[in-house]
Specification:
This protein is of the alpha+beta class. It has 2 domains: about 10-120, Elongation Factor Tu (Ef-tu), domain 3, CATH 2.40.30; about 125-290, 2-Layer Sandwich (Threonyl-tRNA Synthetase, Chain A, domain 2). The chain has 4 helices and 16 strands. The strands form 4 sheets. Strands 2-3-8-6-5-9 form a 6-stranded antiparallel barrel. A 4-stranded antiparallel beta sheet has the order 10-11-16-15. The chain has a 3-stranded antiparallel beta sheet with strand order 12-13-14, with no helix packed on it. A hairpin with a 2-residue loop joins strand 10 (about 170-175) and strand 11. The longest helix is centred in the middle third of the chain and has 24 residues, at about 125-145. The radius of gyration is 20 Å and the shape is globular. The chain starts with 8 loop residues before the first strand and ends with a strand.
Length: about 290
Amino acid sequence: MTLPAGDTRVTYPSGALHATSRVLHVAPTTDGSLAVITETTSFHPVDAAWPDQPADAGVIRSAAGEFPVRDAVVAATDGDALHLGADIPVRTGTEGWVFLVAHLVDGGSAIAEGDEVEIEADAATRRALSTGHTGCHLASLALNRALADRWSKPAREDALGSPDFDGAAISSSRILPNGSLDRYRLNKSLRRSGFDTASLPADLDAVRQQVADQLDRWLASGAPVRVEADGDGLTDRRSWVCELPDGTARIPCGGTHLDSLAELAAVVPSFAVVDDAGTPVLEMANVARIRH
Ligand SMILES: [Zn+2]
């Protein structure tokens, strides 16, 4: 079977849940699933290179029936073989490679190359993840602002002009249903770049209060949110854009989002400093509540 020659076209960045498309390739995986690759999809896949937002839940329907999608992962091929998730041997965007959304369904599912299928991502799961992801970006900007006076040297600025602590220190970001968990390494290189890591653990409650107050002010603005894309290919550059009263915030992002901060009733942050093999790590956990 031939492998696709171009990136999967994706419609989830604009909020789509449904897609109708042709199956370009199916391949059994080593764990007994079937990887299904379509021309277009509305299904958000997890990206092993930066696994912040988990895959959508949902189904694929073919003429033969309805099949649950157990997972969806970013896959890649150079035309010879299909590599899934963490087995992709090259960086995203590498010349000569195409990047694909692989929907993983149970082995034996009656889906074949050439089939016209309907893809449906579950609306409730998507909304909970979009809620968590929008809250996560907003909280990162609020955190950068709350920590701005802890820098003694000029640092790269974030979208709103604060020193970009998030960009400098983040080690992992996990989007959860209606929440997020970001981890920041308070290591020597951060200290050398001018950030005062020493006093932070004692000031966590003041930082939390500042971040919470900033989030409340931003939510009250009801600012519109959108995802801007250079194209509809999986690896085309996309950004989260939020028109805050302080300016337009723009953060590179491959995930899904709400349409407006007015949809959020609250984003509640909490902080802890934990130890990771001798390196202090700041954890920011956010709980985002949707307005009903
Ligand atoms: Zn994002």
